[in-house]
Amino acid sequence: MAMSPMFDKAALNPGVRRREVVGWAMYDFANSGYTTVVLTAVFNAYFVGVVADGASWGTLAWTLALGLSNLLAMLLMPVLGAWADVRAAKKRVLVVSTLGCVLATAWLAQAGRGDLALAVAAIVLSNLFYSVGEAMTAAFLPELARREAIGRVSGWGWSLGYFGGMLTLGLSLGYVIWAQGQGLPATHFVPVTMLITASVYGLASLATFALLKEHSRPLRAVQPGGLAVPADPAISAWQRLLQTWHEARRYADFRRLLGCAVFYQAGIAVVIALAAIYAEAVLGFQQTQTMALIFVVNIASAVGAFGFGYWQDRIGHRRALALTLWGWIAMTLIAVVATTPGPFWVAAVIAGLCMGSSQSAGRAMAGLFAPPDRLGEFYGLWTVATRLAAIVGPITYGLVTWATGGNHRLAILSTALFFGVGLVLLRRIDVQRGQAAAMLGPADAVR
Protein backbone atom coordinates (compact mmCIF):
# COMPACT_ATOMS: atom_id res chain seq x y z
CA MET A 1 0.00 0.00 0.00
CA ALA A 2 1.42 3.40 -0.96
CA MET A 3 2.02 5.87 1.84
CA SER A 4 -0.38 8.80 1.85
CA PRO A 5 1.17 12.23 1.33
CA MET A 6 1.95 14.30 4.38
CA PHE A 7 -1.08 16.26 5.59
CA ASP A 8 -3.36 13.95 3.58
CA LYS A 9 -6.87 15.43 3.54
CA ALA A 10 -8.40 11.97 4.02
CA ALA A 11 -6.84 11.78 7.48
CA LEU A 12 -8.61 14.94 8.66
CA ASN A 13 -12.03 15.51 10.16
CA PRO A 14 -14.72 17.14 7.96
CA GLY A 15 -14.25 20.88 7.72
CA VAL A 16 -10.57 20.79 8.75
CA ARG A 17 -8.21 22.37 6.23
CA ARG A 18 -4.66 21.24 5.59
CA ARG A 19 -3.32 24.64 6.57
CA GLU A 20 -4.79 24.20 10.05
CA VAL A 21 -2.81 20.99 10.46
CA VAL A 22 0.29 22.77 9.19
CA GLY A 23 -0.29 25.44 11.82
CA TRP A 24 -0.86 22.84 14.53
CA ALA A 25 2.26 20.88 13.56
CA MET A 26 4.28 24.09 13.51
CA TYR A 27 3.78 24.37 17.25
CA ASP A 28 5.70 21.13 17.69
CA PHE A 29 8.32 22.70 15.41
CA ALA A 30 8.39 25.81 17.59
CA ASN A 31 8.58 24.30 21.06
CA SER A 32 10.96 21.41 20.33
CA GLY A 33 13.93 23.74 20.45
CA TYR A 34 13.18 24.35 24.12
CA THR A 35 13.43 20.69 25.11
CA THR A 36 16.35 20.07 22.75
CA VAL A 37 18.58 22.98 23.77
CA VAL A 38 17.43 23.90 27.28
CA LEU A 39 16.53 20.54 28.80
CA THR A 40 18.61 18.06 26.78
CA ALA A 41 21.73 19.41 25.11
CA VAL A 42 22.98 22.64 26.67
CA PHE A 43 21.51 24.23 29.76
CA ASN A 44 21.25 21.08 31.89
CA ALA A 45 25.01 20.43 31.74
CA TYR A 46 25.66 24.19 32.08
CA PHE A 47 23.49 24.27 35.21
CA VAL A 48 25.44 21.44 36.84
CA GLY A 49 28.92 22.51 35.74
CA VAL A 50 28.70 26.32 35.84
CA VAL A 51 25.65 27.55 37.75
CA ALA A 52 26.17 24.94 40.50
CA ASP A 53 29.95 25.22 39.95
CA GLY A 54 30.37 21.44 39.67
CA ALA A 55 29.11 20.75 43.19
CA SER A 56 28.20 17.15 44.08
CA TRP A 57 24.59 18.21 44.58
CA GLY A 58 24.35 19.87 41.15
CA THR A 59 22.55 17.02 39.38
CA LEU A 60 20.08 16.65 42.24
CA ALA A 61 19.45 20.41 42.26
CA TRP A 62 18.71 20.30 38.51
CA THR A 63 16.28 17.43 38.89
CA LEU A 64 14.58 19.08 41.88
CA ALA A 65 14.07 22.30 39.89
CA LEU A 66 12.46 20.31 37.08
CA GLY A 67 10.44 18.39 39.66
CA LEU A 68 9.02 21.59 41.17
CA SER A 69 8.10 22.89 37.74
CA ASN A 70 6.38 19.65 36.80
CA LEU A 71 4.55 19.53 40.13
CA LEU A 72 3.09 22.97 39.43
CA ALA A 73 2.06 21.83 35.93
CA MET A 74 0.51 18.68 37.35
CA LEU A 75 -1.62 20.71 39.77
CA LEU A 76 -2.55 23.40 37.25
CA MET A 77 -3.28 21.56 34.02
CA PRO A 78 -6.43 19.57 34.87
CA VAL A 79 -8.22 22.70 36.03
CA LEU A 80 -6.83 24.81 33.20
CA GLY A 81 -7.82 22.15 30.68
CA ALA A 82 -11.34 21.98 32.08
CA TRP A 83 -11.59 25.78 31.99
CA ALA A 84 -10.43 25.78 28.37
CA ASP A 85 -13.20 23.29 27.51
CA VAL A 86 -15.87 25.38 29.23
CA ARG A 87 -14.81 28.58 27.46
CA ALA A 88 -13.50 27.03 24.19
CA ALA A 89 -10.25 28.80 25.03
CA LYS A 90 -7.50 26.32 24.18
CA LYS A 91 -5.95 28.71 21.68
CA ARG A 92 -5.99 31.62 24.14
CA VAL A 93 -4.26 29.51 26.77
CA LEU A 94 -1.73 28.41 24.14
CA VAL A 95 -0.88 32.03 23.30
CA VAL A 96 -0.30 32.97 26.95
CA SER A 97 1.78 29.87 27.71
CA THR A 98 3.94 30.44 24.63
CA LEU A 99 4.67 34.03 25.59
CA GLY A 100 5.52 32.93 29.13
CA CYS A 101 7.93 30.22 27.96
CA VAL A 102 9.65 32.49 25.46
CA LEU A 103 10.24 35.22 28.07
CA ALA A 104 11.40 32.79 30.77
CA THR A 105 13.78 31.09 28.33
CA ALA A 106 15.28 34.47 27.46
CA TRP A 107 15.65 35.08 31.21
CA LEU A 108 17.86 31.98 31.43
CA ALA A 109 20.43 33.98 29.48
CA GLN A 110 21.08 35.97 32.66
CA ALA A 111 22.25 32.90 34.61
CA GLY A 112 25.98 32.80 35.24
CA ARG A 113 28.31 31.06 37.67
CA GLY A 114 26.68 30.80 41.09
CA ASP A 115 23.35 32.35 39.99
CA LEU A 116 21.43 29.40 41.40
CA ALA A 117 18.25 31.22 42.50
CA LEU A 118 17.88 32.99 39.14
CA ALA A 119 18.49 29.81 37.14
CA VAL A 120 16.04 27.77 39.24
CA ALA A 121 13.32 30.42 38.98
CA ALA A 122 13.74 30.74 35.22
CA ILE A 123 13.80 26.99 34.58
CA VAL A 124 10.75 26.42 36.80
CA LEU A 125 8.75 29.09 34.97
CA SER A 126 9.91 28.20 31.46
CA ASN A 127 9.23 24.49 31.91
CA LEU A 128 5.84 25.20 33.49
CA PHE A 129 4.74 27.35 30.55
CA TYR A 130 6.17 24.79 28.12
CA SER A 131 4.12 22.04 29.78
CA VAL A 132 0.91 24.06 29.52
CA GLY A 133 1.53 24.74 25.84
CA GLU A 134 2.33 21.10 25.15
CA ALA A 135 -0.95 19.98 26.73
CA MET A 136 -3.03 22.58 24.90
CA THR A 137 -1.62 21.76 21.48
CA ALA A 138 -2.17 18.05 22.14
CA ALA A 139 -5.82 18.75 22.94
CA PHE A 140 -6.32 20.03 19.38
CA LEU A 141 -5.31 16.67 17.88
CA PRO A 142 -8.67 14.83 18.09
CA GLU A 143 -10.42 17.90 16.66
CA LEU A 144 -8.19 17.76 13.58
CA ALA A 145 -7.69 14.06 12.88
CA ARG A 146 -10.10 11.24 12.14
CA ARG A 147 -9.92 8.60 14.84
CA GLU A 148 -8.58 5.95 12.47
CA ALA A 149 -5.77 8.33 11.42
CA ILE A 150 -4.93 9.95 14.73
CA GLY A 151 -1.62 8.10 15.00
CA ARG A 152 -0.26 9.34 11.70
CA VAL A 153 -1.42 12.94 12.29
CA SER A 154 0.22 12.88 15.72
CA GLY A 155 3.35 11.59 14.00
CA TRP A 156 3.28 14.51 11.54
CA GLY A 157 3.51 16.93 14.45
CA TRP A 158 6.20 15.05 16.33
CA SER A 159 8.37 14.57 13.24
CA LEU A 160 8.12 18.21 12.20
CA GLY A 161 8.86 19.12 15.79
CA TYR A 162 12.22 17.38 15.68
CA PHE A 163 13.18 19.40 12.63
CA GLY A 164 12.42 22.49 14.71
CA GLY A 165 14.64 21.11 17.43
CA MET A 166 17.40 20.52 14.87
CA LEU A 167 17.08 24.07 13.53
CA THR A 168 17.41 25.58 17.00
CA LEU A 169 20.22 23.22 17.97
CA GLY A 170 22.00 23.74 14.66
CA LEU A 171 21.96 27.52 15.06
CA SER A 172 23.15 27.14 18.64
CA LEU A 173 25.89 24.67 17.69
CA GLY A 174 27.14 27.00 14.94
CA TYR A 175 27.41 29.84 17.42
CA VAL A 176 29.12 27.68 20.06
CA ILE A 177 31.75 26.48 17.56
CA TRP A 178 32.41 30.09 16.52
CA ALA A 179 32.57 31.30 20.13
CA GLN A 180 34.95 28.54 21.18
CA GLY A 181 37.14 29.41 18.20
CA GLN A 182 37.30 32.95 19.55
CA GLY A 183 38.30 31.66 22.98
CA LEU A 184 35.00 32.69 24.59
CA PRO A 185 33.86 30.78 27.70
CA ALA A 186 30.59 28.92 28.29
CA THR A 187 29.34 31.83 30.37
CA HIS A 188 29.27 33.77 27.10
CA PHE A 189 28.00 31.31 24.50
CA VAL A 190 25.42 29.35 26.56
CA PRO A 191 23.37 32.51 27.33
CA VAL A 192 23.33 33.30 23.60
CA THR A 193 21.92 29.83 22.86
CA MET A 194 19.07 30.62 25.26
CA LEU A 195 18.25 33.76 23.26
CA ILE A 196 18.41 31.77 20.01
CA THR A 197 16.01 29.21 21.47
CA ALA A 198 13.55 31.84 22.68
CA SER A 199 13.63 33.60 19.30
CA VAL A 200 12.96 30.47 17.23
CA TYR A 201 10.16 29.43 19.60
CA GLY A 202 8.45 32.80 19.40
CA LEU A 203 8.78 33.29 15.65
CA ALA A 204 7.78 29.75 14.62
CA SER A 205 4.72 29.76 16.89
CA LEU A 206 3.30 32.70 14.95
CA ALA A 207 2.35 30.24 12.18
CA THR A 208 0.28 28.30 14.70
CA PHE A 209 -1.60 31.34 15.91
CA ALA A 210 -2.25 32.47 12.34
CA LEU A 211 -3.48 29.13 10.93
CA LEU A 212 -4.93 27.02 13.76
CA LYS A 213 -8.66 27.38 14.49
CA GLU A 214 -10.58 26.61 17.67
CA HIS A 215 -13.22 24.09 16.53
CA SER A 216 -14.85 23.58 19.92
CA ARG A 217 -17.63 25.81 21.23
CA PRO A 218 -18.30 27.11 24.75
CA LEU A 219 -20.42 24.68 26.75
CA ARG A 220 -24.10 25.43 27.22
CA ALA A 221 -25.45 26.64 30.54
CA VAL A 222 -26.77 23.15 31.28
CA GLN A 223 -25.11 20.13 29.73
CA PRO A 224 -27.06 17.07 28.58
CA GLY A 225 -25.91 15.15 31.64
CA GLY A 226 -27.42 17.79 33.87
CA LEU A 227 -24.20 19.43 35.13
CA ALA A 228 -24.73 23.16 35.29
CA VAL A 229 -22.01 25.48 34.05
CA PRO A 230 -21.78 28.32 36.60
CA ALA A 231 -21.03 31.90 35.68
CA ASP A 232 -17.57 31.63 37.25
CA PRO A 233 -15.44 29.57 34.83
CA ALA A 234 -13.02 28.60 37.61
CA ILE A 235 -15.86 27.01 39.60
CA SER A 236 -17.02 25.21 36.48
CA ALA A 237 -13.51 23.92 35.86
CA TRP A 238 -13.26 22.50 39.38
CA GLN A 239 -16.70 20.91 39.11
CA ARG A 240 -15.81 19.24 35.82
CA LEU A 241 -12.48 18.10 37.21
CA LEU A 242 -14.15 16.49 40.22
CA GLN A 243 -16.70 14.89 37.94
CA THR A 244 -13.92 13.44 35.78
CA TRP A 245 -12.22 11.83 38.78
CA HIS A 246 -15.58 10.47 39.90
CA GLU A 247 -16.17 8.98 36.46
CA ALA A 248 -12.61 7.65 36.07
CA ARG A 249 -13.76 4.09 36.73
CA ARG A 250 -16.06 4.37 33.68
CA TYR A 251 -13.05 5.16 31.49
CA ALA A 252 -11.00 2.21 32.67
CA ASP A 253 -8.60 2.09 29.74
CA PHE A 254 -7.89 5.81 29.89
CA ARG A 255 -7.08 5.38 33.58
CA ARG A 256 -4.79 2.43 32.78
CA LEU A 257 -3.08 4.46 30.07
CA LEU A 258 -2.37 7.18 32.61
CA GLY A 259 -0.76 4.65 34.95
CA CYS A 260 1.31 3.20 32.13
CA ALA A 261 2.38 6.68 31.01
CA VAL A 262 3.62 7.63 34.47
CA PHE A 263 6.23 4.88 34.28
CA TYR A 264 7.42 4.92 30.69
CA GLN A 265 7.34 8.72 30.51
CA ALA A 266 9.46 8.79 33.70
CA GLY A 267 12.16 6.94 31.78
CA ILE A 268 11.85 9.28 28.80
CA ALA A 269 12.07 12.29 31.13
CA VAL A 270 15.39 10.97 32.44
CA VAL A 271 16.81 10.76 28.92
CA ILE A 272 15.58 14.25 28.01
CA ALA A 273 16.83 15.93 31.17
CA LEU A 274 20.04 14.02 31.83
CA ALA A 275 21.48 12.58 28.60
CA ALA A 276 24.00 15.40 28.21
CA ILE A 277 25.00 15.21 31.86
CA TYR A 278 25.54 11.44 31.52
CA ALA A 279 27.58 11.82 28.32
CA GLU A 280 29.85 14.46 29.84
CA ALA A 281 30.19 12.90 33.29
CA VAL A 282 30.68 9.26 32.25
CA LEU A 283 32.19 9.39 28.77
CA GLY A 284 33.90 12.77 28.86
CA PHE A 285 31.96 14.38 26.00
CA GLN A 286 32.71 18.04 25.30
CA GLN A 287 29.95 20.62 24.70
CA THR A 288 30.15 20.45 20.91
CA GLN A 289 30.22 16.63 20.94
CA THR A 290 27.12 16.55 23.12
CA MET A 291 25.27 18.97 20.85
CA ALA A 292 26.24 16.94 17.77
CA LEU A 293 24.99 13.80 19.52
CA ILE A 294 21.63 15.39 20.29
CA PHE A 295 21.42 16.63 16.70
CA VAL A 296 21.69 13.02 15.47
CA VAL A 297 19.11 11.96 18.07
CA ASN A 298 16.70 14.53 16.64
CA ILE A 299 17.17 13.17 13.12
CA ALA A 300 16.38 9.67 14.34
CA SER A 301 13.42 10.98 16.32
CA ALA A 302 11.95 12.74 13.29
CA VAL A 303 12.23 9.57 11.21
CA GLY A 304 10.76 7.47 14.01
CA ALA A 305 7.82 9.77 14.71
CA PHE A 306 6.82 10.20 11.06
CA GLY A 307 7.23 6.59 9.95
CA PHE A 308 5.88 5.12 13.13
CA GLY A 309 2.79 7.31 12.97
CA TYR A 310 1.66 5.43 9.86
CA TRP A 311 2.77 2.09 11.22
CA GLN A 312 0.92 2.40 14.51
CA ASP A 313 -2.38 3.06 12.70
CA ARG A 314 -1.75 -0.18 10.79
CA ILE A 315 -0.50 -2.56 13.52
CA GLY A 316 -2.37 -1.05 16.48
CA HIS A 317 -1.42 1.60 19.01
CA ARG A 318 -0.77 -0.75 21.93
CA ARG A 319 1.53 -3.04 19.95
CA ALA A 320 3.38 -0.06 18.50
CA LEU A 321 3.94 1.47 21.92
CA ALA A 322 5.12 -1.89 23.29
CA LEU A 323 7.79 -2.13 20.58
CA THR A 324 9.15 1.29 21.50
CA LEU A 325 9.34 0.34 25.19
CA TRP A 326 11.43 -2.72 24.33
CA GLY A 327 13.65 -0.36 22.35
CA TRP A 328 14.01 1.93 25.37
CA ILE A 329 15.06 -1.00 27.56
CA ALA A 330 17.72 -1.99 25.00
CA MET A 331 18.94 1.61 24.87
CA THR A 332 19.45 1.87 28.63
CA LEU A 333 21.35 -1.42 28.80
CA ILE A 334 23.70 -0.34 25.99
CA ALA A 335 24.29 3.01 27.71
CA VAL A 336 25.14 1.25 30.99
CA VAL A 337 27.86 -0.94 29.47
CA ALA A 338 29.27 1.70 27.09
CA THR A 339 32.84 2.67 27.96
CA THR A 340 33.66 4.44 24.69
CA PRO A 341 31.66 6.94 22.60
CA GLY A 342 30.81 4.40 19.87
CA PRO A 343 28.27 2.25 21.76
CA PHE A 344 26.78 5.37 23.34
CA TRP A 345 26.13 6.80 19.87
CA VAL A 346 24.29 3.57 19.03
CA ALA A 347 22.24 3.92 22.21
CA ALA A 348 21.49 7.54 21.30
CA VAL A 349 20.18 6.59 17.84
CA ILE A 350 17.93 3.93 19.38
CA ALA A 351 16.70 6.52 21.88
CA GLY A 352 15.93 8.89 19.03
CA LEU A 353 13.92 6.33 17.08
CA CYS A 354 11.97 5.41 20.22
CA MET A 355 11.57 9.00 21.46
CA GLY A 356 9.32 10.32 18.71
CA SER A 357 7.52 7.01 18.28
CA SER A 358 6.58 6.46 21.92
CA GLN A 359 5.61 10.08 22.56
CA SER A 360 3.47 10.17 19.42
CA ALA A 361 1.81 6.83 20.23
CA GLY A 362 0.94 7.87 23.78
CA ARG A 363 -0.54 11.20 22.68
CA ALA A 364 -2.60 9.45 20.01
CA MET A 365 -3.97 6.85 22.44
CA ALA A 366 -4.95 9.58 24.90
CA GLY A 367 -6.90 11.26 22.11
CA LEU A 368 -8.71 8.02 21.25
CA PHE A 369 -9.77 7.50 24.87
CA ALA A 370 -10.92 11.12 25.45
CA PRO A 371 -14.63 12.03 25.05
CA PRO A 372 -14.90 14.44 22.09
CA ASP A 373 -16.47 17.26 24.13
CA ARG A 374 -13.90 17.11 26.94
CA LEU A 375 -10.59 17.06 25.13
CA GLY A 376 -8.91 19.87 27.08
CA GLU A 377 -9.97 18.30 30.35
CA PHE A 378 -8.78 14.79 29.51
CA TYR A 379 -5.53 16.06 28.05
CA GLY A 380 -5.16 17.99 31.30
CA LEU A 381 -5.31 14.64 33.10
CA TRP A 382 -2.82 13.25 30.58
CA THR A 383 -0.53 16.11 31.54
CA VAL A 384 -0.90 15.14 35.21
CA ALA A 385 0.51 11.73 34.31
CA THR A 386 3.35 13.02 32.14
CA ARG A 387 4.32 15.75 34.62
CA LEU A 388 4.25 13.27 37.51
CA ALA A 389 6.55 11.11 35.39
CA ALA A 390 8.82 14.09 34.79
CA ILE A 391 9.06 14.51 38.57
CA VAL A 392 9.62 10.87 39.49
CA GLY A 393 12.10 9.91 36.75
CA PRO A 394 14.73 12.67 36.97
CA ILE A 395 14.52 12.98 40.76
CA THR A 396 15.04 9.22 41.08
CA TYR A 397 18.10 9.57 38.87
CA GLY A 398 19.34 12.53 40.93
CA LEU A 399 18.83 10.70 44.21
CA VAL A 400 20.68 7.61 42.95
CA THR A 401 23.68 9.70 41.86
CA TRP A 402 23.66 11.62 45.14
CA ALA A 403 23.35 8.46 47.27
CA THR A 404 26.09 6.60 45.35
CA GLY A 405 28.59 9.42 45.17
CA GLY A 406 27.92 10.21 41.52
CA ASN A 407 27.39 6.74 40.02
CA HIS A 408 25.64 7.68 36.79
CA ARG A 409 25.78 4.13 35.41
CA LEU A 410 23.69 2.79 38.27
CA ALA A 411 21.31 5.73 37.87
CA ILE A 412 20.72 5.06 34.16
CA LEU A 413 20.29 1.35 34.90
CA SER A 414 17.47 2.20 37.32
CA THR A 415 15.75 3.97 34.42
CA ALA A 416 15.24 0.63 32.64
CA LEU A 417 12.87 -0.37 35.45
CA PHE A 418 10.48 2.43 34.50
CA PHE A 419 10.20 1.14 30.94
CA GLY A 420 9.75 -2.44 32.19
CA VAL A 421 6.87 -1.52 34.49
CA GLY A 422 5.26 0.54 31.71
CA LEU A 423 5.44 -2.49 29.43
CA VAL A 424 3.67 -4.66 32.02
CA LEU A 425 0.90 -2.08 32.59
CA LEU A 426 0.41 -1.62 28.84
CA ARG A 427 -0.75 -5.23 28.53
CA ARG A 428 -3.94 -4.39 30.48
CA ILE A 429 -5.10 -1.74 28.00
CA ASP A 430 -7.77 -2.59 25.43
CA VAL A 431 -7.73 0.09 22.71
CA GLN A 432 -11.10 -0.80 21.14
CA ARG A 433 -12.81 -0.84 24.54
CA GLY A 434 -11.24 2.52 25.41
CA GLN A 435 -12.46 4.09 22.16
CA ALA A 436 -15.95 2.72 22.69
CA ALA A 437 -16.09 4.19 26.19
CA ALA A 438 -15.08 7.62 24.92
CA MET A 439 -17.75 7.64 22.21
CA LEU A 440 -20.57 6.27 24.38
CA GLY A 441 -20.11 8.77 27.20
CA PRO A 442 -19.86 8.27 30.96
CA ALA A 443 -23.29 6.75 31.47
CA ASP A 444 -22.66 3.81 29.14
CA ALA A 445 -18.88 3.53 29.13
CA VAL A 446 -17.45 0.05 28.95
CA ARG A 447 -15.79 -0.95 32.17
Task: Give structural attributes.
447 residues, mainly alpha, Growth Hormone, Chain: A, 16 helices, globular
Overall description:
By secondary structure, this protein is mainly α. The chain has one domain (18-217, 233-440): Up-down Bundle (Growth Hormone, Chain: A). The protein has helices at 18-41, 43-51, 58-87, 90-107, 116-139, 141-144, 150-181, 186-211, 233-246, 252-282, 287-315, 317-337, 341-369, 375-403, 408-426, 431-440. Mean pLDDT is 84; it is low at 221-231.
Helix content: over 70%
Radius of gyration, CA atoms, in whole angstroms: 21 Å
CATH topology label: Growth Hormone, Chain: A
| Count of the separate structural domains | 1
User: Beta-strand level of the residues, as a percent range?
Assistant: under 5%
What is the SS-derived class? mainly alpha
Number of helices: 16
| Oligomerization category of the chains in this entry | single chain
Element-by-element helix/strand order: HHHHHHHHHHHHHHHH
Low-pLDDT runs: 221-231
**Named CATH architecture:** Up-down Bundle
N-C termini distance: 36 Å
CATH class: Mainly Alpha
CATH superfamily: MFS general substrate transporter like domains
Backbone shape: globular
Overall average pLDDT: 84
Q: How many β strands by DSSP?
A: 0
What summary fits the major beta sheet? none
